[in-house]
Specification:
- There is one protein chain.
- This protein is an alpha/beta fold.
- The chain has two domains: 226 residues, Alpha-Beta Complex (Quinone Oxidoreductase, Chain A, domain 1); 163 residues, 3-Layer(aba) Sandwich (Rossmann fold), CATH 3.40.50.720.
- 26% of the residues lie in helices and 21% in strands.
- The strands form four sheets. Strands 5, 6, 7, 8, 9, 16 and 17 form a seven-stranded mixed beta sheet that branches. A six-stranded parallel beta sheet has the order 12-11-10-13-14-15, with helices on both faces. Strands 1-2 form a two-stranded antiparallel sheet.
- It is globular.
- The chain starts with a strand and ends in an 8-residue tail after the last strand.
- The relative contact order is 0.16.
- Bound molecules: nicotinamide-adenine-dinucleotide and zinc ion (ZN) (2 copies).
- Nicotinamide-adenine-dinucleotide (NAD) binds next to helix 1, helix 7, strand 11 and helix 10.
């Protein structure tokens, strides 16, 4: 008997609403579940009724068939929910709490977690350090684009909102705390953004726009966002960013027109491995373009924040090298300029509490910046298609009717 509608990846370009089992305090076998995780007991977990769960560019890599995600994988790593059951080992999280779930699943007990590196927890994914809900190679924890979801290590992972009514009122902003707001902020922060900094952010998708909001919050002097999607660039301009259209040529030249110099202090890659080329090459995929261009246009001694995702297996890669995540990076240039690089999953827990306060105290308008758009769970397949075409929107699924506006 079905008790939990969810969104699953079926085949390239196809996602479906499927019936899945209601979660238990044990990880059962299913699509993408690592054999070593089958039967894993989760007494430290909580079961949530989903309040909001967002579609992400990271999901799109799987849905486009650009990863080794198996058919039937239940998607969804951006989750906000109401706690409706807690396991026997949960002490502090209570039924009725409204919580934000960091997309990284982490144990709170390993060396990396103790150093707040929750994106590379050692204990939750038997394949490799780092885990997430509803994601290929991430251990098999079931995704949260569903009515209900199990969240392990609940006392450690879940960020409780102080007030239920306030949380539901600001839910379209707060739902961005599970991933893109901390991720974008981390991109800006790890690129060294501070008061007066000049910043170039490649990509005006939700992560790039969140990085722009993050850079503004950190006090940047100039925030320049690049993309080839005019609708998304207009979205960036709507909250005070400068923009460059990379289909018109090298961003370096357009940056010079804005700043008077062709370089910035801080570079952010919010694109990842499905990057398109610049100028006349913008019709083609050119996976190393953003990294090479950021090395070129970031001042010597600067830093690159690289939230954009790079994979270890890409069946659709442009050549054999790209198919195993090997790209033609001009590292000599980065080395010569003493650039620093920060890659990997954003350790959400490092930032989510403070960014929550910034939202609750009306210091940022992240939902508006990314054009958060609430839709029913049944409308997810259409939203995936629209997002894939480059809609300047961040889709927020509303599976249980909590979102009223
Ligand atoms: N590190 C993390 O923890 C983390 C978390 C969330 C998302 N991500 C990754 O961040 C990236 C962005 O996510 P999103 O949801 O905004 O995705 P998205 O696909 O909506 O946005 C990517 C944008 O990049 C643009 N683009 C393509 N080539 C470009 C180029 N050469 N220069 C400038 N822009 C270019 C595209 O037109 C698109 O608008 C993805 O790779 C996603 O997987 C990483
Ligand atoms: Zn995401
Ligand atoms: Zn850990």
């Amino acid at each position: 008997m079905s008790t939990n509608s969810a969104i699953a990846y079926k085949s390239p370009g196809v996602v479906e609403v499927v019936d899945t089992p209601y979660p238990e305090f044990e990880l059962r076998d299913g699509p993408g579940v690592n054999p070593a995780n089958i039967g894993r007991k989760v007494p430290h977990g909580a079961i949530l009724r989903t309040v909001a769960t967002n579609i992400c560019g990271s999901d799109q890599h799987m849905v486009r068939g650009r990863t080794t995600a198996p058919a039937g994988l239940v998607l969804g790593h951006e989750i906000t929910g109401e706690v409706i059951e807690v396991g026997s080992d949960v002490e502090f999280i209570k039924v009725g709490d409204i919580v934000s779930v960091p997309f990284n699943i982490s144990c709170g007990r390993c060396r990396n977690c103790k150093e707040r590196k929750t994106g590379i927890c050692l204990n939750v994914n038997p394949d490799r350090p780092g885990s997430a809900y509803g994601y290929v190679d991430m251990g098999g924890w079931v995704g949260g684009q569903a009515e209900y979801v199990l969240t392990p290590y609940a006392d450690w992972n879940l960020l409780k909102f102080p007030d239920r009514d306030q949380a539901l009122e600001k839910i379209l902003d707060l739902t961005m705390l599970s991933d893109i707001f901390p991720t974008g902020f981390h991109g800006a922060y790890s690129a060294g953004v501070g008061p007066g900094s000049t910043v170039y952010i490649a990509g005006a998708g939700p992560v790039g726009l969140a990085a722009a909001v993050g850079a503004q919050l950190l006090g940047a002097g100039a925030v320049i966002v690049g993309d080839l999607n005019e609708e998304r660039l207009a979205q960036a301009r709507s909250f005070g960013c400068e923009t460059v259209d990379v289909s018109k040529g090298d961003p370096r030249d357009q940056i010079e027109q804005i700043l008077g110099v062709p370089e910035v202090e801080c570079g952010v890659d919010a694109v990842g491995f499905e990057a398109r080329g610049h100028g006349a090459d913008s019709a083609q995929e050119a996976p190393a373009t953003v990294l090479n261009s950021l090395m070129d246009l970031t001042e010597a001694g600067g830093a690159l924040g690289i939230p954009g995702l790079y994979v270890t297996g890409d069946p659709g890669g442009i050549d054999e090298a790209a198919q195993v995540g090997s790209l033609s990076i001009r590292l000599g240039l980065g080395w010569a300029k003493s650039l620093s690089f920060a890659t990997g999953q954003c350790p959400v827990m490092k930032y989510n509490r403070h960014l929550m306060q910034a939202i609750l105290q009306d210091k940022v308008q992240i939902a508006k910046a990314v054009s958060a758009t609430a839709i029913a769970l049944e409308d997810a397949p259409a939203a995936y298609a629209e997002f894939d075409k480059g809609a300047a929107k961040k889709f927020v699924l509303n599976p249980n009717g909590y979102i009223k506006n």
